[in-house]
């Protein structure tokens, strides 16, 4: 595989020769999903930065482990997996060596912008900074940070890497888009670690069937079923893993605990954002002891309300965070309990990014939703699984339920 | 697990005590899918009959192995798997010990009526006998056959076992119905052996969630996604495995070869039906050498036509075998080649038996297609994947294609 | 399986009936190794105690994750696995229902005595308390603790459970002994999560072949190879996982960091012992920042010495902790560096507890080392893999190596 | 991976471009063990020859499937696996493109010399032709055979390929030697299909750690445990799979049935050798009906004697076939039964070819048996598992056992 390494990598590795004449530059790491992952010198250098090492202590599925106890895998191993799949895909795509180097770096670094507990603190961070986890320019282009320095030593452009992570440009879609290697890895890895079979997509095939057609990333001819399988897998994993009610309750409790912690302590959001999971757990135990301890002992709130889209007034799914907080207060007041003990959890409407996947059918690039009858069915099924939840301590679910139905005008 | 064994089994095994005090009666067999399968004395006695041993030489996926080379598993190991899942399901169902014994026997014997190459010779046999492979009364109730004698020695009613295999009665649905353990095993096993991931259903959950409600076999509350997964898994396995065009071509060639063999030789259909795969392979090599050798060397016909439902005249999918044979002759004549060298392959309209699965939703038993928006989507996708095929030797595909489009009035 | 549940469990679960007539009392948990683990009411009650929930935050393999990035599994999921294997073994053993209940509780609770980072802090704790992690009487019999209260509510004897965890009594060997379900689970689970294949023992067979013969736990006839496989698997996992040099270096650094933390802070050992991994990580970052940060960023010491038993003076393997610390000081002085920057790591002589496993051969109970020629070979191989290590910051390995060879009188 | 393809392959594939710009020449096949196997044009051409297609109908483990019902995998899929591992190893070895092409061809063709039922008919064929299954010059260099013609069309030297299959030359050891990719594939594959875990070697690592040192194939530094694992895996698979007594009984019955078939029919040995499994099964059913039917219905002989090396007179393990046949006659006469109903089965002394594996230890190439204490232990364990067997119909085991102990002078 030696030829696909960039000149940079080659020179750097010239004196090591640990791995024989054809592939002298690769360091193998054992992964539980992809077996051996061979790191090129670029990856090897980046991996040693604090920004990447920190991901060892950020769990991939945050509160899902309270439902599936084996789901303790981290964003570090996931990042290695995404790097590996990007590396394989690049073999089959027509990109120059420099772009390939930037792509591999972007794949490895795509999650360094995550806060503690990954997606679970995304909203808190967004509300206070206006930034998403994949906006990582602040981190990668800061010359004081080791990761920026490492990129520059490797003669890679930090700005360009950051842009790829945001999915910009036709080839950024490989790292962040509806056909990205991110989801190929996480569906497979989350299935492996939860023990749930539904994430079993054919990533070996997907990654080999990617093509660039007129500057767009597409799946080659004969892959409608392959594309559908990814869509469907996500829908099933949503239903039984990602949006399991216990995980959503714990996630909502964590969100509220983080808000209170940031309100009460003198922690700044920038500092918060760079915490690892263990830092946050300890901080919550100290500053928000009631919720913190409930989370540590899995002594979770229960559902006072759990209801579908057909039972809520129009527009409810679009209600903002402030309005939800106000509703919590009203409900608490009506139920006669502490406002901190009620959580209203209204998820966004289900989107199915994968439905706009591009596939070649009879020589023409089509959107999956146009090529597959299935997409509409899955979209309807996703809609049918949407739930609004109101949670509170077990002994108050009855009063809170009643108050919530009144305040939120539920059927 | 001792208590779930019938009195019959217990007495017979009393003096063996190979397996300790709680479960003295079970013989373990190692399976590549379910790890250890414990055989109760009833299963152990039935397994030694020639009817079951023959299944060691009947492949589960017949011609699919010409596409997926590792798909060499047999109806014998599949039958053990179905027995095992039935046995587990019975633990969670409220059936008496005698019914349980009959069910386990039916699960183990459910495929003894298959001809050589399983489903691939179903049509030949049905055209000449009017019987399906799951009508096994002729075999199980024939007092001259060891399998009938074994059932009677075990104090089981052969007639009742045969009826269960046909799926009759509320509990027969466990063996043959839209929620049967047959499909739970084959989806999992076919995925394991082809290497295709899409058959990965959660059979561990399915089998524990079966209930009898008012005499109907249903999936308990909270299992819409579980039921959908089975439906979807079948749809994907159809697309990439069961109806792969190479497998369909080989299957159609086998069907024609069997017809010619039965026409030319003095073999009777009853004898044919009891052949194992190897007997048929040798018989074809002798009596139908041209097609026989092509099948052995994977020197298969190619597609002259491969077209979807939107391109065929109304009613085409319902055309009978005789009409297809006549079309073959017409096409061959028009193309100026030997009529034996053209095959017209028109599959039935796709049915989705699983869509009538019963699931409990909010305390009410519903049909899956009423409870799930997904079913319609899958049904449409299945329809979109329907293909009419016309096959012939590679060097004649052009002429035959042209003639076929004319004769069959295709767009 | 209903019959094997104790009366206690049955009564408690009478009104739930979630799982059908045969097994109304079992709650299923999805595990990545054993698929579904069914919890009986005893296990369900115990799992909710803080002592067991804490194990969610104690990693099974502590520093091994710095070598195998996917090895993030916890003592919580391992404890569920051990419970599950004990539960299966009990089906095949002749024990009364009350003993069975105590055994299952002991299996589930066997690791509650572990400090943060499990085995990695065992020595620190032992040096300061004189106690091993499996001495859990202090915890289980303390009436102020929820776990003790839960046991008593379940009418189980905390003292008896503690004794079983220490492996006492003929049947305690199932929980802690050379044939215990603990190692059956961890070999399999550690292999699954590291991605290393060598832990693949046949636990399905082992657990079904356990017998009580004259009050001793033995493997039944025909299992010499099964017993050998467990022994060999441990030897290989030792070589490539448990005693990987990177893991040993990180482990030694953690040990020293814990000592310093306990010396410097006002933390008591009792408090330390009840920490979870995240508490310790944060405490080290605060109180022992240099080592703490090195551990977090995987900026580890390197080997200055790494040498086998044949190169060390007789008796070296038996040298105590104090002597090792003295040697560190002498080496640091000779090399002219800070004494905190040198670690001498002298492991115990390899023991092979599994070699005294009892197996039935030709009707007679034998020790595995007498029944198998292999044991001696594995013992010799283990001895050949013993290594004394001296570690320090990368830039000082040369001087430290030289000094260490002198101080420790190495060849 | 494009660069490692030979010029021949490249030219041939120039117009296909099915697989994108980097790897236009590879055709993927789905395998249940290695996932996707990419065939280069050389492999693709060779696979279509009757000699390779025939391997679809030769089982890998012959009679083992009578013990492990899922062990129905074929020498075809195994040959693909060996090709794949050779292809991967070649990436890490310093061989020229032409040698690489010959090696890949040899890997794919290494089993074409096998008779029906593989190793099980090796002895019959050797006794009548004096040839082993890996002497394939007669087949590969015969210009009338398609496989020879294909090699020549591909500009490969059939003679050289045949030599590599026999393991000659330093690099032939990759195909046939103590470190060959043949055993790496079969240990893994046989474990996958039997469901037995012990074949789980780390083939991913083995294949990447092969080196050529002074013209010898060795495992690079740090791989003693990797080499031991292969040795140990073989020893365990021998014990529980390859030499399982039921498989040995069925194998001995097949051997005798073949002898009688060749004696009675006018089949020539050359013709016999080219049969596939199904041809042989049908031939035996016709010409040796008693044994043939017993094999088909798994109605096997039982053990009259089963005894270890310590109970047989010196030299017994070296007794030749003729002497064994004479002993059978004597035993039959003494027991008063038909001589065709007694089988004496004396296996060779156990050899452990793997023990001479070369590994680099501290920079020096050593034989594994010198570098590892384990080898002796495994050798002794193998010796302890050697068994002499005498088999006959179940109802005569007592008389035959008595007669055999007398005739063979057993303790």
Automatic annotation (TrEMBL), chains A, B, C, D:
Protein name: HD superfamily phosphohydrolase
GO BP term (any one): dGTP catabolic process
Keyword Hydrolase: yes
HD/PDEase domain residues: 71-196
Sorted UniProt keywords: Hydrolase
GO molecular function, one term: dGTPase activity
High-level lineage: Archaea, Methanobacteriati, Methanobacteriota, Stenosarchaea group, Halobacteria
Entries under SMART domains matching the protein: HDc
Statement: the UniProt record of this protein carries the keyword Hydrolase: yes
One family name in Pfam for this protein: HD_assoc_2
């Amino acid at each position: 595989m030696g030829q696909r390494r960039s000149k940079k990598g080659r020179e750097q590795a010239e004196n090591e020769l640990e791995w024989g004449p054809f592939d002298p530059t690769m360091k193998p790491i054992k992964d539980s999903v992809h077996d051996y992952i061979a790191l090129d010198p670029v990856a090897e250098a980046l991996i040693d930065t604090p920004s990447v090492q920190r991901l060892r202590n950020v769990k991939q599925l945050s509160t899902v482990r309270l439902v599936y106890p084996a789901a303790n895998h981290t964003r570090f191993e996931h990042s290695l997996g995404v790097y590996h799949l990007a590396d394989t895909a690049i073999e089959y795509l027509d990109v120059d060596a420099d772009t390939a180097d930037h792509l591999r770096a972007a794949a490895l670094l795509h999650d360094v912008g995550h806060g503690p507990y990954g997606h679970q603190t995304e909203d808190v961070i967004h509300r206070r900074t206006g930034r998403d986890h994949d906006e990582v320019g602040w981190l990668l282009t800061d010359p004081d940070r080791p990761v920026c320095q490492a990129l520059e030593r490797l003669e890679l452009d930090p700005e360009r890497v950051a842009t790829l992570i945001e999915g910009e440009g036709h080839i950024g879609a490989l790292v962040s888009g509806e056909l990205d290697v991110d989801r190929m890895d996480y569906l497979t890895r989350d299935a492996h670690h939860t023990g749930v079979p539904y994430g079993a997509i054919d990533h070996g095939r997907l990654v080999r069937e990617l093509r660039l057609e007129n500057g767009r990333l597409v799946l080659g001819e004969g892959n409608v079923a392959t594309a559908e399988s990814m869509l469907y897998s996500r829908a099933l994993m949503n239903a039984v893993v990602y949006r399991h009610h216990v995980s959503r309750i714990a996630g909502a409790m964590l969100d509220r605990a983080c808000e209170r912690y940031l309100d009460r302590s003198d922690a700044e959001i920038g500092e918060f954002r760079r915490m690892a999971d263990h830092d946050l757990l300890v901080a919550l135990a100290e500053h928000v002891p009631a919720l913190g301890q409930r989370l540590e002992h899995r002594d979770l709130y229960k559902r006072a309300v759990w209801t579908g889209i057909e039972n809520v007034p129009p527009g409810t799914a679009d209600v903002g965070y402030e309005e939800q907080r106000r509703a919590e207060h009203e409900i608490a007041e009506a139920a006669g309990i502490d406002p901190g003990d009620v959580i209203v959890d209204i998820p966004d409407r289900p989107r199915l990014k994968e439905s706009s996947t591009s596939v070649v059918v009879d020589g023409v690039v089509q959107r999956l939703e146009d090529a597959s009858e299935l997409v509409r069915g899955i979209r309807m099924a996703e809609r049918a699984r949407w739930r609004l939840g109101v949670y509170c301590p077990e002994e108050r679910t009855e009063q809170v339920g009643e108050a919530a139905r009144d305040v939120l005008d539920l059927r």
